[in-house]
Amino acid sequence: MAFPIDLKYIIEAERELEVEFPYEFKQKMINLNGGELITEDDHWQLYPFFDKSDKKRISRTCNHIVLETKQAKKWSGFPLNAIAIATNGCGDKLILFPLNGNEKKLGENIFLWFHATGKTQEVAETISELIEE
Questions:
Q1: 3-class state of residue 107 by DSSP
Q2: Which residues of the chain have pLDDT under 50?
Q3: Contact predicate 92/112, CB 8 Å
Q4: For residue 25, which of 87, 95, 82, 91 has the smallest C-alpha distance?
Q5: Which of 56, 7, 59 is nearest to 30 (CA)?
């Protein structure tokens, strides 16, 4: 279940991951922290930002972007500069990459990372292009 989140939790994640999330992605997550997306071929569960405001939100956001990205970076073939933002439940991830020439600022483009091959493919230019359920 997605719900709004305070910007301070996004800023905490940015500090921990040493990146800045794209504006449109942050705005979507401030309004609905998590939720589902649909690409042409699959359904995706967005990783939320970790919300420590109360016990209920802690339990609902325990599979947060920081944790899931750190775990994904242990997988063979996962791009080391990528940030995992969603899963299809089968090992594949939706990811963000840093902008060319600026490793600290993530681009708006959304990529699909295939866990079986380690390959990536662009699926959307922004988060708003993906259909939400």
A1: coil
A2: none
A3: yes
A4: 95
A5: 7
CA-based nearest residue to 22, from 117, 106, 129, 110: 106
Ranges of beta strands (E only) in 5-101 are 36-38, 43-46, 83-87, 93-96, 98-99
pLDDT, tens digit (0-9, with 9 covering 90-100), for 50-84 = 999 999 888 999 999 999 999 999 999 999 999 99
Sign of the alpha-carbon dihedral angle for 68, 70, 76, 78 = positive
From the number of C-beta atoms within 10 Å of its C-beta (0-12, 13-18, 19+), residue 73 rates as middle
Strand (E) positions, the chain? 36-38, 43-46, 83-87, 93-96, 98-99, 102-106, 110-113, 120-124, 131-132
Alpha-carbon distance 2 to 32, whole Å?
Answer: 5
Is there a contact between 85 and 112 (Cβ–Cβ < 8 Å)? no
pLDDT at position 108: 96
Per-residue pLDDT, 80? 93
pLDDT in the model for residue 58:
87
